[in-house]
Structures are given as C-alpha cells and as structure tokens.
Amino acid sequence: MPDYVQADEQKVRQTLMNLASNAIKFTDTGSISFALKAIQSNDTEVSLAFSVKDTGIGIDPEKQRHVFEEFKQENSDTSKHYGGTGLGLAICAKMVEMMGGKIELQSKKGSGSQFSFTLTFTRDNHEVNSEESLRIAYISQKPSSLLINELQRFGCNLTLLSGVDGELLNLSTNTIVISDDAHHIAQLQKAGALYRLVLLRDNKHGQESSDIKVDGYLTAPLLVTG
C-alpha cells in the first residue's frame, strides 16, 4: 500500500462519507466496516479497491439497479421510516464515475449491503519531514495500540502521556490532544491550553460530559482489519 497518491481528495472523501452515512442510517444492529486494498500497481500507478459493508436492512434484488438513480429509495416505507432525499448514492456513483471508476453493490434483503469501487491513482513519492508531521499528544492510562499504530503509520509526530503534566503543557500550541478521559480535557481547558482537543468516547460506557467542549470525537471500539 503506497503512503501517498495523487487524488481528488474532496471527491474521495465525500464518496466515503456518503457511503458511511448511508450505512449508518440503515444499520440498527451489527457493524459497519471499511476496507481498502491495493489490487494492482507499478512504479507510477496503483489501483485501490474501496468497500463499505454493513449488516443493515439490505436491498431487494429487483430494487438494486435503481438505488444509484436520483431521488430513488427502495420503497416509500423506507423513505418514511429512515428519511433522506435519495440523492446520496446517486452522488456517490457520479463522483466515482468522474474519477474513472464504477460503484458496485452486493446486497441481500435482511443481510446487509456492500458498496465497492476501484480507482487508479498516480503514486506520489513526497516525503514528510518531522517539521511537517502532524503533532499528536495521546493521553491515556490504557492507550489503544491500534490507535497508536495508525497514527504512526500516517507519520504523525506522536507523544504518549499518562496524564496532564508539565511535559504536555510545554508542547507546541499546534498539537492535537487526544484523550479517553473527559477529566483530562477539562484540566487542559481549566489551564487555558490552546490545543485542539479530541475526546475518545467509549460507546459501551457512554463516557461524555456536557461541561466540556472539544474540537472532535473518536468513537471506540476501533477495529481495523485486512
């Protein structure tokens, strides 16, 4: 898998966001998974296969060919129950087509759906030096090895801390602070820290506080496969 490619970031991001939103809307129980793999490459180009899979309500076979049409949903009951305009998947299909690919659907009523597409990108050999790297401070008594590996894989300048201490307060103000403890976030805000703050939420225990304001959330458990 290449570290960098030349791509239309906005179109790729919007396509994946729309597919994720669609999966979340129609999945009450179970899981939603993302997959990315390189299926063909040479010295200058690489073809990447993207997929978003859910365990939601699924789609009847006779309805599947219409889901990428504008203002189409499986039926009126679906529209009434789940809402939406029926434009999300049509936009996905159009953006993937504009990038030279085609979106495909595999689904079975009651057993979920998988949307997938393959795009070919030009490799980018740009190397990020330590001064350009995104600075992350991760505060946790029990840090997630998965999150650490992913941050390091993306070349982040990572500092691991077990609590709010002098070392953290001496970091550059452009550091992003991630913590799984709302009390750490509250401490930083009380100290007047200017960092961008991200709370790692645990859905199982519902840890959250209305008294703190953060710049973003990550939701655990995190699962990466493949």
TrEMBL record:
The keyword Ubl conjugation does not apply. One of its GO terms (molecular function) is protein histidine kinase activity. It catalyses: ATP + protein L-histidine = ADP + protein N-phospho-L-histidine. Pfam families: HATPase_c (PF02518). Residues 1-123 form the Histidine kinase domain. The keyword Kinase applies. Its EC number is 2.7.13.3. One of its GO terms (biological process) is phosphorelay signal transduction system. InterPro entries: HATPase_C_sf (IPR036890), HATPase_dom (IPR003594), His_kinase_dom (IPR005467), Sig_transdc_His_kin-like_C (IPR004358). Keywords: Kinase, Phosphoprotein, Transferase, Two-component regulatory system. This is histidine kinase. It comes from Vibrio maritimus.
